[in-house]
Amino acid sequence: MPTTANHKLRAVNQFSREMLITLAAVALFTTAILLAAGAPPLAAFQALYQGSLGSWIKFSHVIKAWIPLTLCGCGLLFTFRIGLWNIGVEGQVMMGAVFTTWALRQGLESAAPGLFVGLSFAAAATGGGLWALAAGLLKTKGGVNEIFAGLGMNFVAQALILWLIFGPWRRAGVASMSGTELFPQSLWLSYLAAWRFSPVSLGLVLTALGITALVLRYTRMGLCLKAIGSNSRAAVLFGIEPNRYLLLAMLLAGGLAGLAGSLQVSGVYHRLLPAISSNYGYLALLVVMLANYNIWLVPVVALFFACLNVGSIQLPMVLKVDSSLSGVVQGVLVLATLGVHAWRTRRAHKA
Amino acid sequence: MKRLAREDKSVVLVSHKLEDVEALCDTVTVLRQGKVAGRMQAPFDARRLLAMMFATLPRAPAREHRQNGGPILEFKAVIGTGGRTGLKQCDTGICRGEVVGLAGLEGSGQGVFLRIAAGLKPPAQGSVHLENVAMAGKGHRAFQAAGVGFLPSARLEEGLMPGLTIAEHVALKSRFSAFMIQWPQALKAARAGIDTFHIMGQPLTLVESLSGGNQQRLLLSFLPTRPKLLLLENPTRGLDLESAMWVWNHLLAFKKGGTGIVFSSSELDEILMAADRILVFFEGRIIKDVAAEQTDSRELSRAIAGKV
Q1: What is the interface pTM, i.e. ipTM, of the complex?
Q2: Run of H or E including B214
Q3: DSSP of A43-98, one letter per residue?
Q4: Cβ contact (<8 Å) for B169 and A238?
Q5: Contact between B164 and A226 using a beta-carbon 8 Å cutoff
Q6: Would you state the pLDDT for residue B271?
Q7: Which of A145, A295, B168, B235 sits CB 3.0–4.6 Å from B164 for a disulfide?
Q8: Greater confidence, B44 or A203?
């Protein structure tokens, strides 16, 4: 529902201010840490930039990270809208990857591999969706907080992947952390050589963004999610059944996260890896929070996180500092985001 | 004040509290809109006093209505949990066109009673019938479909959704947006509701920025248009007198169509003014069930304290 222009302007102003504060906080903490680690901060920031936006190849790597982040972000918009902390998104990405691997394995001998690539999307959305639905049912039927249920199921999903890689799906002769056997090229998502990512992935993300925006803004379902997120007791008086929508939101979030995991397999790694989800699920939670749950800011913030993520990889090499530094920088970003978020929530409560 | 009066001093007390007036005064003069509406000597007839204070109240002889109406709501041996005391072994019925006031200390079972009657809370035991249909265990949607409207006392906590606009509330309530929300229609309906219910706000106003009276009017606009049973929790709490009178005029108009109205209130005056019949709750039980014209605030006060 559009609010008045005045409202909108104020919200935009406030958001830009908070974004700047977050960035300033990140820059400040990062500088302090770099100085403490004995690395020159300016050179480090330049390396970050060079590593993410410095060349077309680098940028295509950024897009490769942006795709799953944005897909997960779209899904999380549904769960955040209804007031759920779907921290299980990480496991939902993993289950998407598992179901995709399963579907593609069925197509190994097939004469129509394209069919199985298409099927793998559906399998992934189903796998991720059901994994999320299980956490949702634990909440609605068992009263288990979705954060604990989700976290627990993340561990289960991770264990399942390891078991598959070292068990039923192990490579002939060697089972190793490097994952399952590489799929033949016929089962890869088609991609242009210059791009490093598949146009199909890009199309999927843009479609997901469009549909999410449409559903949240113009459908009864979107409004019901918002109503329940605001006040589920009052929503009941309006004839809405909160539990039904809660499960629906989980299903949608899980489906989109599953799709992100699917693209990691069919579009990026072409096999199942132990770290197939690359923490993109967790990162997407931060993306959506920092974007203030605004769908049009999600891709923007996701791009920023993707740049940092990709750019910080070569930070240790360029600056000859310990490789854990990039992890520290990302950690700082997370803390700064949470800090600004907490500050915003507290201020909103005061007002 | 009594002592001052005994010392031959004259005391003029200005109050809208009937209990104070009854306890302290010898004669009373009722003013309404700058004019003397009537005078009375002690002992006072509370209902006549109220009639003088609020001439606009559409009141009909209550007994006549009760004879005409069959039962809408029936509680048989209902036990409910929640609140301070829960609800203990409740047997009662509400008839068509009957206005029933629930008196009692806050949280003596009135809230649980209303919520069970609205299908918002399942009874732990016992049966609930709406027009002879067993309803216990069904959800609020089934009760809504049967023509029950519920108005909670905590407007922003239980009735409305902060962060949503008036138009968004209207869109959720209306039937025309089954899948896609028809925003132009929702805005139009919101504007119509705002006009009809004299709400000081715009379709795009967030509900939390409305005043209490306007929030209450908005909630009233969401009640079904032809309800069989209205359940109202403290319908005028926190409202100024004018808003409160507006609310009651609106509610009592439903009575003509045969709607049964049950409301709780912590104001005895309000209960005496609006109700045909009064149920007094004490520690989760109905300890008094009396026609409004056969009681007064003194007797009710004693019952509220558990002395029947």
Answers
A1: 0.83
A2: helix B212-221
A3: HHHHHHHHHHHSSHHHHHHHHHHHHHHHHHHHHHHHHHHTT---TTHHHHHHHHHH
A4: yes
A5: yes
A6: 92
A7: B168
A8: A203
Q: Of A54-63, A328-337, B142-151, B186-195, where does mean pLDDT reach its minimum?
A: A328-337
Burial of A339 per CB tally in 10 Å (0-12, 13-18, 19+): middle
**At a CB cut-off of 8 Å and minimum separation 6, what does A245 contact?**
A82, A221, A224, A225, A228
Question: What amino acid occupies position A39?
Answer: A
User: Nearest-CA distance from B139 to chain A in Å?
Assistant: 9
Minimum CA–CA partner of B208 in chain A: A230
Instruction: Please enumerate in sequence order all residues whose Cβ is within 8 A of that of A206, keeping only pairs 6 or more positions apart, or say none.
Output: none
The answer to whether B172 contacts A227, with C-beta atoms less than 8 Å apart, is: yes
Q: From B94, B116, B207, B220, select the one nearest B157 (Cα to Cα).
A: B207
A235 touches chain B (CB under 8 A): yes
Q: Using 50, 70 and 90 to split pLDDT, how confident is the model at A138?
A: very high
Q: Which residue has the tokens 């002690």?
A: B42
Chain B within 8 Å of A6 (Cβ-Cβ)?
no
pLDDT tens digits, residue range B64-98?
444 456 789 999 999 999 888 999 999 999 999 99
Residue type, A83: G
A257: exposed, middle or buried (Cβ count in 10 Å: 0-12, 13-18, 19+): buried
> How confident is the model at residue B64, as a pLDDT?
43
Closest-CA residue of chain B to A221: B179
Q: Give residue A159's pLDDT.
A: 97
Q: How far apart are CA B126 and CA B109, in angstroms?
A: 16
A220: contact with B, CB 8 A cutoff: yes
Query: Does the CB of A244 have a partner CB in chain B at under 8 Å?
Result: no
- Percent of chain A at pLDDT > 70 equals 96
Which amino acid belongs to residue A340?
A: V
